[in-house]
């Protein structure tokens, strides 16, 4: 297993089961060569300490558009990580840190707390629709997918009737093998055109939303944020802000229902919901591609010297199963605390929206437990198929009954 070049991402033995390669590589070859869907070569890191070190090291940046960086996909643009998506200088260095501080203030605890009642109300409405349609139902399409779409669009002031198009564009940009280069280019162009119009409308009619706040910063003219950077920020938040959470809601519920003693434990003690969310994030075996980084100068990882120009993929899901860090790492333990998983990354590029994602996951789970205590899988887990090619991983559907 440890020798040679391995095709990556690895295939899952089942939607809730991790690839055997994760354990083997952690034990035998923590830094290994992999061939990406594009055919380009990269290095894969799987141990917790190594992944954490790489993600925190400023030499491993996000300049994935460099001429010698590995492409993720065979398409010329490389999809969401490719050269057709502009970064406007926000991908590394002091500019990135200034941008993070600015956007982080917009993800304030006050704003997220104020959104929780609206998130809960939307979750309740979606459950009402599921119940009205009657069992069995697809929890992914009927609940897990539309809830985060609604949340991120609410955050950015996007009207309800425009959300379907945004979801289609983001799915196009996040899929590694489903779309042609022409389709990716068209989605990028349409998405950019839409956002130019949306910013113009928001500038004329500002609201109590994050995008209006950021437009105000641009218009202050003090150089903290340019118009181009505003575009990149808004598009990035829309793309990243719903696909990851949508798929995580579905996977989390599938994990809890696959061994229904877990679901019952939460019914018996709803106070474990926060723990359950963190453990689902750690235990997730269907975490997609991982976090790619570009090495700007020579560095050593796990005793191996890597030259400048190396693309390194950090498999955070494999790291979250590291037996040297997590006791009984292969067991989903709803009482596990503290839980130092790396699902949101770490260091200067950790997920800006993690507080919002946690709020969505906790609220979604609490509403389902309260409204549908008898929830159960409607098919054996072996019949549930993964979403093929999606960078963030996911389930194609989640049939349930109640």
TrEMBL record:
Its cofactor is heme. Keywords: Heme, Iron, Metal-binding, Monooxygenase, Oxidoreductase. InterPro entries: Cyt_P450, Cyt_P450_B, Cyt_P450_sf. GO terms for molecular function: heme binding; iron ion binding; monooxygenase activity; oxidoreductase activity, acting on paired donors, with incorporation or reduction of molecular oxygen. CDD domains: Cyp158A-like (cd11031). Belongs to the cytochrome P450 family. This is Cytochrome P450. It comes from Sinosporangium siamense.
């Amino acid at each position: 297993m440890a020798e040679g070049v391995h095709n990556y991402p690895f295939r899952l033995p089942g939607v809730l089961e991790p690839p055997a390669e994760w354990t083997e590589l952690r034990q035998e070859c923590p830094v290994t060569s992999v061939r990406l869907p594009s055919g380009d070569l990269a290095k894969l890191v799987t141990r917790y300490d190594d992944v954490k070190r790489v993600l925190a090291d400023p030499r491993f940046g996000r300049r994935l558009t460099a001429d010698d960086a590995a492409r993720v996909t065979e398409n010329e643009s490389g999809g969401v990580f490719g050269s057709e998506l502009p970064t406007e200088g926000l991908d590394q260095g002091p500019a990135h840190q200034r941008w993070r501080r600015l956007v982080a203030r917009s993800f304030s605890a006050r704003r997220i707390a104020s959104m929780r009642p609206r998130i809960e109300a939307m979750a309740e409405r979606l459950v009402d629709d599921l119940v009205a349609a009657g069992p069995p139902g697809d929890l992914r399409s009927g609940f897990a997918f539309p809830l985060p779409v609604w949340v991120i669009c609410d955050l950015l002031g996007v009207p309800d009737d425009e959300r379907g198009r945004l979801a289609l564009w983001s799915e196009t940009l996040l899929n590694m093998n489903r779309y042609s280069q022409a389709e990716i280019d068209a989605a990028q162009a349409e998405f950019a055109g839409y956002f130019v119009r949306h910013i113009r409308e928001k500038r004329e009619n500002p609201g109590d939303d994050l995008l209006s706040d950021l437009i105000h910063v641009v218009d202050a003219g003090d150089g903290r944020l340019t118009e181009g950077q505003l575009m990149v920020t808004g598009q990035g938040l829309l793309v990243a802000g719903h696909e990851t959470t949508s798929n995580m809601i579905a996977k989390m519920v599938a994990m809890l229902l696959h061994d229904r003693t877990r679901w019952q434990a939460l019914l018996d003690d709803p106070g474990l919901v926060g723990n359950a969310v963190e453990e689902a994030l750690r235990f997730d075996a269907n975490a997609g591609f991982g976090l790619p980084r570009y090495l700007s100068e020579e560095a050593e990882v796990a005793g191996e010297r890597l030259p400048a120009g190396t693309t390194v993929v950090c498999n955070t899901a494999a790291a979250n199963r590291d037996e040297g860090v997590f006791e009984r790492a292969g067991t989903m333990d709803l009482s596990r605390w503290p839980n130092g998983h790396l699902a949101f990354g770490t260091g200067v590029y950790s997920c800006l929206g993690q507080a919002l994602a946690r709020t969505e996951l906790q609220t979604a789970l609490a509403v389902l437990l309260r409204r549908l205590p008898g929830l159960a899988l409607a098919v054996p887990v072996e019949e549930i198929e993964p979403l093929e090619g999606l960078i963030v991983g996911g389930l194609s559907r989640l049939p349930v009954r109640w």
